[in-house]
Amino acid sequence: MSIPVPASQPGHRAYEDSVRLDIGGIVTGLREILGAQLVACLGRVSNTRSVREWAEGSRAPGADVVQRLRTSYYVAGILSERESGTVIQAWFQGMNPELGDKSPAALLRAERLDVIGPDVVAAARSFIAHG
Questions:
Q1: C-alpha atoms less than 13 angstroms from C-alpha of 78 in its C-beta half-sphere
Q2: Total structural domains in the chain?
Q3: Does residue 80 form part of some domain?
Q4: Does residue 79 contact residue 124 with C-beta atoms inside 8 Å?
Q5: Based on C-alpha coordinates, what's the Rg of the chain?
Q6: Is residue 23 a contact partner of residue 61, using CB atoms and an 8 Å limit?
Q7: What is the model's pLDDT at position 11?
Q8: Residue 67 lies in a domain
Protein backbone atom coordinates (compact mmCIF):
# COMPACT_ATOMS: atom_id res chain seq x y z
CA MET A 1 0.00 0.00 0.00
CA SER A 2 1.38 3.38 -0.95
CA ILE A 3 0.45 6.53 0.93
CA PRO A 4 0.81 9.62 -1.24
CA VAL A 5 3.06 12.28 0.27
CA PRO A 6 2.86 15.77 -1.16
CA ALA A 7 6.21 16.93 -2.54
CA SER A 8 5.72 20.18 -0.62
CA GLN A 9 5.67 18.41 2.76
CA PRO A 10 8.73 19.42 4.79
CA GLY A 11 11.41 16.78 4.55
CA HIS A 12 10.25 14.96 1.43
CA ARG A 13 13.56 15.53 -0.36
CA ALA A 14 15.54 14.83 2.83
CA TYR A 15 13.75 11.51 3.22
CA GLU A 16 14.53 10.49 -0.34
CA ASP A 17 18.19 11.40 0.14
CA SER A 18 18.36 9.58 3.48
CA VAL A 19 17.25 6.39 1.75
CA ARG A 20 19.22 6.69 -1.48
CA LEU A 21 22.62 7.92 -0.30
CA ASP A 22 25.27 5.46 0.79
CA ILE A 23 26.58 5.78 4.33
CA GLY A 24 29.59 7.81 3.17
CA GLY A 25 27.24 10.39 1.66
CA ILE A 26 25.07 10.42 4.78
CA VAL A 27 28.05 10.97 7.07
CA THR A 28 29.56 13.62 4.81
CA GLY A 29 26.27 15.52 4.71
CA LEU A 30 25.82 15.29 8.46
CA ARG A 31 29.38 16.48 9.06
CA GLU A 32 28.76 19.52 6.89
CA ILE A 33 25.62 20.47 8.82
CA LEU A 34 26.31 19.25 12.36
CA GLY A 35 30.08 18.94 12.61
CA ALA A 36 32.12 15.81 13.23
CA GLN A 37 31.78 15.89 17.03
CA LEU A 38 27.98 15.79 16.97
CA VAL A 39 28.01 13.10 14.27
CA ALA A 40 30.31 11.04 16.50
CA CYS A 41 27.81 11.43 19.34
CA LEU A 42 24.92 10.34 17.12
CA GLY A 43 27.03 7.45 15.84
CA ARG A 44 27.80 6.26 19.36
CA VAL A 45 31.57 6.70 19.06
CA SER A 46 33.90 8.76 21.19
CA ASN A 47 36.15 10.16 18.47
CA THR A 48 35.84 11.92 15.15
CA ARG A 49 38.34 9.58 13.47
CA SER A 50 35.56 7.00 13.13
CA VAL A 51 33.35 9.63 11.51
CA ARG A 52 36.10 10.46 9.00
CA GLU A 53 36.60 6.76 8.24
CA TRP A 54 32.85 6.27 7.70
CA ALA A 55 32.77 9.25 5.32
CA GLU A 56 35.80 7.94 3.40
CA GLY A 57 34.40 4.41 3.24
CA SER A 58 37.44 2.85 4.90
CA ARG A 59 35.31 1.68 7.81
CA ALA A 60 31.60 0.91 8.11
CA PRO A 61 29.42 1.51 11.15
CA GLY A 62 27.12 -1.21 12.42
CA ALA A 63 23.57 -1.55 11.11
CA ASP A 64 22.01 0.15 14.14
CA VAL A 65 24.33 3.13 13.82
CA VAL A 66 23.61 3.36 10.09
CA GLN A 67 19.89 3.66 10.84
CA ARG A 68 20.54 6.32 13.52
CA LEU A 69 22.66 8.30 11.08
CA ARG A 70 20.07 7.98 8.29
CA THR A 71 17.35 9.22 10.66
CA SER A 72 19.58 12.07 11.83
CA TYR A 73 20.26 13.01 8.20
CA TYR A 74 16.53 13.02 7.50
CA VAL A 75 15.88 15.27 10.51
CA ALA A 76 18.75 17.61 9.61
CA GLY A 77 17.37 17.80 6.07
CA ILE A 78 13.93 18.78 7.33
CA LEU A 79 15.45 21.55 9.40
CA SER A 80 17.82 22.72 6.65
CA GLU A 81 14.87 23.66 4.46
CA ARG A 82 14.47 26.80 6.58
CA GLU A 83 17.31 27.01 9.12
CA SER A 84 21.05 27.64 9.14
CA GLY A 85 23.63 25.11 10.25
CA THR A 86 24.12 26.96 13.53
CA VAL A 87 20.40 26.74 14.35
CA ILE A 88 20.28 23.07 13.34
CA GLN A 89 23.23 22.26 15.61
CA ALA A 90 21.57 24.10 18.50
CA TRP A 91 18.28 22.30 17.83
CA PHE A 92 19.94 18.87 17.93
CA GLN A 93 21.80 19.67 21.17
CA GLY A 94 19.27 21.77 23.08
CA MET A 95 16.46 20.77 25.37
CA ASN A 96 13.29 20.30 23.34
CA PRO A 97 9.89 20.78 25.02
CA GLU A 98 8.25 18.39 22.53
CA LEU A 99 10.69 15.67 23.59
CA GLY A 100 10.30 15.94 27.35
CA ASP A 101 12.97 18.66 27.56
CA LYS A 102 15.61 16.24 26.30
CA SER A 103 17.92 16.93 23.40
CA PRO A 104 17.18 15.23 20.09
CA ALA A 105 20.83 14.16 19.80
CA ALA A 106 20.80 12.47 23.20
CA LEU A 107 17.57 10.65 22.38
CA LEU A 108 18.75 9.56 18.93
CA ARG A 109 21.93 8.24 20.50
CA ALA A 110 20.46 6.42 23.49
CA GLU A 111 16.87 5.39 22.84
CA ARG A 112 15.36 2.72 20.63
CA LEU A 113 15.16 4.26 17.20
CA ASP A 114 11.78 2.71 16.35
CA VAL A 115 10.35 4.43 19.42
CA ILE A 116 12.10 7.82 19.43
CA GLY A 117 12.73 8.35 15.71
CA PRO A 118 9.14 9.31 14.81
CA ASP A 119 8.99 11.68 17.79
CA VAL A 120 12.19 13.46 16.75
CA VAL A 121 10.97 13.75 13.14
CA ALA A 122 7.65 15.19 14.39
CA ALA A 123 9.50 17.67 16.62
CA ALA A 124 11.60 18.83 13.65
CA ARG A 125 8.52 19.29 11.49
CA SER A 126 6.83 21.22 14.29
CA PHE A 127 9.86 23.47 14.69
CA ILE A 128 9.84 24.25 10.97
CA ALA A 129 6.10 24.93 11.02
CA HIS A 130 5.99 27.03 14.18
CA GLY A 131 9.54 28.32 14.68
A1: 23
A2: 1
A3: yes
A4: yes
A5: 14
A6: yes
A7: 79
A8: yes
Other beta carbons within 10 angstroms of residue 39's beta carbon come to 29
What number of helices (H) and strands (E) belong to the chain?
8, 0
How distant, in Å, are the alpha carbons of 50, 69, 112, 129 from that of 62?
12, 11, 15, 34
Percent of the chain surpassing pLDDT 70: 92
Q: Which domain holds residue 60?
A: 12-130
Given a contact cutoff of 8 angstroms between Cβ atoms, the answer to whether 76 and 88 are in contact is yes
Residue 34 backbone phi and psi in degrees, to 5: -100, -20
Per the domain annotation, does 125 fall within a domain? Answer: yes
The DSSP output letter for 99 is G
Q: Are 39 and 27 in contact (CB under 8 A)?
A: yes
pLDDT digits (tens, 9 = 90+) for 21-78: 999 999 999 999 999 999 999 999 999 999 999 999 999 999 999 999 999 999 999 9
19 inside domain: yes
Residue 72 sits at φ, ψ, to 5 deg, of -60, -40
Give the model's pLDDT for residue 4. 45
